[in-house]
Each structure stands twice: as structure tokens, then as C-alpha cells.
User: Fold these one by one.
Assistant:
Number 1:
Amino acid sequence: MSYLSEFGDDFKLGFNLADYPFLVDQSWHNDQSPRFEWPRRALWINHFDCNEYPRFEVYHLDTDENGETHIDDERCYLSTDNISELTAYLNDYKAGR
């Protein structure tokens, strides 16, 4: 699945996905919003009009003994409505920091 097929062309990520080729689209029809994963991280992008959660959230991704990944919502690395904070975080990862 992809975020476009699950959430449509009207859902705006707020950044150019092609700039971050390490992000793997893991969006699913049961999810409230698009989800992208990369090693040990998961990024949720909530709708612009969502007042319940921050727009961008990055969580730790654990792998269990069966090789399945699970989001550890106790370990949040970033929680913000600010796209500049998200892109700075992603750019740091891309640069190896």
C-alpha cells in the first residue's frame, strides 16, 4: 500500500518524499494517517486539521523475537507541528548525524 492509495492525492505530507529515499511507505488502510519507516524509526504524519495529535511524530521501532516490528510509543524522538523541525531531523539522519 502507499499513502497516496490509502489517503488520496489531497493528503499533503508537507515535504518532498523523494528528498528522503530512506523513508519506506508503510501506510495501511487501518491507519489513521500515513506512516513511514526507516531503521529503528517510524514517522506518523497526521492530517493538517487534526487537533488531537501533533502533525509529525517520530517513534522508536522495536523488532520482536519473530522479526516483526512494533512502534514503541514510550520512546518518541520528535513530536511537532513544525515542518522545519521535521525536515531538520530527517536531514540530520540523512547526513549520518
Note: The helical segments are 3-7, 83-94.
Number 2:
Amino acid sequence: MDTRELLYRILFRGLVEIRAEAYTIQNKQIFFIADLLHQLPLDLASELSEDASFDDVLKSLQERSHEKGSDQWLTQVITEVTQYRQMQSNTL
């Protein structure tokens, strides 16, 4: 296991623990975010090593988001991040 894979697995483990704690304390918003994202680090590790692109990983995340009924949250985050990056680019 190289350092990149180790870091992905640490992130995965952290998100799983956040999801478990959110379930325990009945924090639906945090549970739902952690549940959606916990697989992302492993997807990045495996799919990118198999010549998949970041676009493929994002599409997979969007499909998972749709299946879980959380596409509104993911769409909002993507929009906010994109707008923030555009604002940063305009100030340079």
C-alpha cells in the first residue's frame, strides 16, 4: 500500500466513523453527508488506478447521490464550489 492509498483509507475510515456517530446521535444531516461521501476515497483510489477519470468518479458520486435522494445537496455543493473557484480566478 502506498501513501496515497493509505491517505484514502484514513479518509474513508474517518467518514465511516462520522457516519456512525451521526447515526448514534440522530443527526440526519451529518449522517446523510457522511453516508454519501464515505465511499468516495476508495472510489478515487480504485477507479483512478484503473484509468478512470475524475469525471467518471464524479458521475458515480452523482448517481449514488440520486439513488440516496441527496442530489439537491450535492448539486448545491458543486454550484457553490464552482462559483467560489470562479470568483478566485477573477481576482487573480
Note: The chain has a mean pLDDT of 91.
Number 3:
Amino acid sequence: MDDRPALPALSSGEDITGGGGVSRDRKQGYGERMSLQEELRQVEEDLERMRTEVAEMRRQVGDVGPTDPTERSMMINQADEQENLIASLDARREDLLKRLNEE
């Protein structure tokens, strides 16, 4: 039997990316929900940072990159996963913009 403690259930918006996505602290500040505008600003900052990181990953694979095919494949997979997170953040950004326009 596994002796590790059970993980708490994730609520909507929590980070399950191991550090590469939006942090839990960014979704809630000091016990209060972020305003839509604050959340939109944070999502846009995260998108900018993540796009830069993915571009750097792809550059490393294309330029110098690892010579080991397994390592190269892992780097490509990491970049692909990051791009999937970016797509999710883009959808979140669009939802926030829509909600702000409804207010």
C-alpha cells in the first residue's frame, strides 16, 4: 500500500503543471478572488512568459540541441505540452475578455 498522503482535490484554476502554468497563488490573492481585470492581466503575463519559454525550447532543439534522440524527443514533447497549456490560457483569456465586455 502507498504510504504517501492523499492529494487534495483540485479546484478550477489550480496549477497542475508542476510549475509551468498559472500558480494557485495567482488565482487567489490574500484570501480574496482576483478581479476579472487583475486575472486577465495575470493571464496575459503568463502567456507572454510561456510563449517566450516555448520559443527558447524550440530554438535549443533546432540550434544546438541535444544529440541524444531520446533527449531531443523529450524536449520536443515538453514544448508541445507547454503549447497545450498556452492554448488553455488563450481560451481563458478569451473567456475573461467576454466576461469583462458583459459587465
Note: The beta strands are 28-29, 32-33.
Number 4:
Amino acid sequence: MKPLVRDQDGAETVRLLAGDDGRAQPISSRIAQVEMLRTSRRFAALIPHAEVGRAALRDADGVLAGVHFLVLDQEIVEGAARMEPAGLRSLAALHLAS
């Protein structure tokens, strides 16, 4: 993980996010899981060779297995609902809030 902003708590944040092996674990919301799996399914449906499609789905599952998923709790939902600008799409607001 490469911190975007160096601050006094940056090292502590990286330590807290790191797994047992000292490497940071990817974190995302469940929205990203749905998007990745649906995109993989769309890709698989477009490919005439069935094994390539199945491989895309397996690859997506493998990537997602290493991700820590955040729960979309009421705080995230309310933050997304109130996020500016008002024209921001709902899905984008949920991504940003989580």
C-alpha cells in the first residue's frame, strides 16, 4: 500500500490494514464484488469458447477471495444519500461513501 498523504497516523493505518504477512489487504464494498462478477458473466457470455468464460469467472472469484469487504451499513447509506454534488449517480455515491 502506498499512502497518498503522509501523516502522523499513516504508518499506524498501514499496520492496521496489513495482514499477518505484513502486506496490506485490499478493501472494498460488496458493490465492487457484484460489479466484478457481473462483468465477468457478461464477458463469459460474449466468448464463444465456454472454457474461456469459465476461466474468467474463476479468475474473478480468485481475486475476490483476497478482498476484505465492507458492510454497507446505515452510516454509509446516509453518507451516500447526502453526498454532493446532487447530480452524482447513486452507485457512484455508494462507492465513494464506502
Note: The helical segments are 10-17, 30-46, 50-65, 74-82, 90-97.
